[in-house]
Write a structure and sequence with these properties.
Largest sheet: 8 strands, parallel
Family: Belongs to the ribulose-phosphate 3-epimerase family.
Cofactor: Fe(2+); a divalent metal cation; Co(2+); Mn(2+)
CATH class: Alpha Beta
Function: Catalyzes the reversible epimerization of D-ribulose 5-phosphate to D-xylulose 5-phosphate.
CATH superfamily: Aldolase class I
Keywords: Carbohydrate metabolism, Isomerase, Metal-binding
Number of domains: 1
Strand order of the largest sheet: 1-8-7-6-5-4-3-2
Bound molecules: 5-O-phosphono-D-xylulose
Oligomer: single chain
Shape: globular
CATH topology: TIM Barrel
Order of helices and strands: EHEHEHEHEEHEHEHH
Number of helices: 8
Pathway: Carbohydrate degradation
Amino acid sequence: MAVQISPSILAADFARLADEAAAVPNADWLHVDVMDYHFVPNLTLGLPVVEALRKATATPLDCHLMIADPDRWAPQYAEAGAGSVTIHAEAAKAPVRTLREIRAQGARAGLALNPATAVEPYEDLLPELDMLLLMTVEPGFGGQKFLDMVLPKVRRARELVRRHGGRIWVQVDGGVDAETIGRCAEAGADVFVAGSAVYGASDPGAAIDELRAAATRAQG
Ligand SMILES: O=C(CO)[C@@H](O)[C@H](O)COP(=O)(O)O
């Protein structure tokens, strides 16, 4: 599948979110990290900001819920207009119901796995999914170093997805930059979240072009 780049607004200026969204017109998605001080030791934003961003940009929102009770809140993010809503396997208590509710609201449904969470136990959930998100840092903060140990899991996820028809996107998130993105693409990822590498660059749009080119080259 063609490479997709999803810049993470966690690395953007929160006081100027509409401008920051406008600074990346070539992004496929805008990655919105929702954190609640419980599932991760950080707090970011919630539904009102997602609703406001939805009106401020035409770029679809890729909401990644790092929250303790995704079963309660995920459908509301889809209802608020997110194009994709991803819940964590480690937090969801009723993932089948929640993933179905996300889809019923018209959004794509994603399942995220922390670096130490294996993908194989979730094979039976694949029919409920549009995307698997493999964290390549421990969730909670931007600007961390990419964890190479996740790359074999990216390969295994791609193989599982292939056996189930190849329809599901494989997203990587954390420490993705112009160097690490090639290894992720080569391992089978096709959707790339990048915070610091995009919003830390002097020209965020050019940084996206560079990431896309590096991933496309590595896909071969
Ligand atoms: O979900 C997270 C962190 O928990 C990510 O989306 C980060 O925001 C990515 O930031 P960089 O590692 O690219 O700076």
